[in-house]
Write a structure and sequence with these properties.
It holds the Pfam family DUF3298. Keywords: Signal. It contains 8 helices and 13 strands. Helices cover 29% and strands 32% of the residues. The termini are far apart. It folds into 2 domains: 166 residues, Heat Shock Protein 90 (2-Layer Sandwich); 115 residues, Heat-shock cognate protein, ATPase (Actin, Chain A, domain 4, Alpha-Beta Complex), CATH 3.90.640. The strands form 2 sheets. Strands 1, 2, 3, 4, 5, 6, 7, 8, 9 and 13 form a 10-stranded mixed β-sheet that branches.
Length: 281
């Protein structure tokens, strides 16, 4: 038992070195982090879970969990969506490992390390007690026998007031070609710091697939481009922050962001950031 506690403590320290100490639930194996008030009686608790499986699989999941005083179906739906995402990524990783079983049989046991790490960053933009939860999940995996680890992101944008996922198209006017604007803006920013113009051009084509990793930020829309999308692997993830002022003509007035911009000072100053990615662009 003491050994298990030590392992969990080390993992916790590595993932949350910059925050206050946590407490562990010994029965479930779940570590609870600092509580972040979201609004009214709803709080966000970063939660760490470590799962083990054969062959030599370790999955470390750090995810946001909402709690509320009393029943709240929107909170429960958010938590279910997060849980489903973690399960999907875990299952996908196990499939990747299974595909390499033949290769791993020829490796020394000490060289077989199949590790998946999922963590997250969150921004909460509060439109006067109507919070928008914007989560970016950072997924890092390594399968023994492959040449290098892989990294990618998934996002969850959720309107906690009405209990619905927010899609990118929900933010913009129907008759506006917002994808072309996002494409042109991103291409201009990326071209200033990256050399491979062909990759930039292909990775920023104005199609939904290229802009599916987006998050709301207190100052703008953050677009994430995963490795290989706009630059070679060595350059890693690229991000572009598009200020709301640049998007104003395209945003639907009654969309979650449109409503926020109508109360800009109150809305954008009342936000919660539980990670650093929102300011990395």
């Amino acid at each position: 038992m003491q050994s298990a506690k030590s392992i969990m403590l080390l993992v916790f320290i590595s993932l949350f070195a910059c925050v206050a100490p946590a407490f562990a639930d010994e029965d479930s194996g779940i570590v609870h982090e600092t509580i972040y008030p979201v609004y009214d009686e709803v709080d966000l608790i970063p939660t760490v879970r470590i799962d083990y499986a054969k062959p030599r699989i370790v999955v470390r999941s750090t995810y946001p969990r909402l709690t509320s005083i009393g029943a709240n179906e929107h909170v429960e739906l958010f938590n279910q969506l997060v849980s489903d995402l973690i399960k999907e990524e875990t299952a996908e990783f196990k499939n990747r490992v299974a595909e390499k079983q033949g290769l791993q049989k020829n490796l020394a046991k000490s060289d077989i390390k199949n590790e998946l790490t999922i963590d997250f960053d969150t921004s909460v933009v509060n439109t006067h007690d109507k919070p928008i939860m914007s989560v970016r999940f950072n997924i890092h995996g390594y399968v023994a026998g492959t040449t290098r680890p892989y990294h990618y992101h998934r996002v969850l944008n959720f309107d906690l007031d009405n209990g619905q996922k927010i899609e990118l198209a929900d933010l913009f006017k129907i008759d506006e070609d917002y994808l072309t604007f996002l494409s042109d803006y991103s291409r201009k920013v990326l071209s200033k710091k990256l050399r491979n113009k062909e990759m930039i051009r292909n990775g920023t084509q104005p199609i939904p697939e290229n802009f599916k990793r987006w998050n709301v930020n207190p100052t703008g829309l953050l677009i994430t481009f995963d490795e290989y999308q706009v630059a070679p692997y060595v350059y890693g993830t690229q991000t572009v922050l598009i200020p709301y002022v640049a998007l104003k003509q395209f945003i639907m007035p009654d969309s979650p962001i449109g409503l926020c911009l109508k109360q800009r000072k109150k809305c954008l100053r009342n936000h919660l950031l539980t990670g650093g990615f929102m300011n990395e662009a």
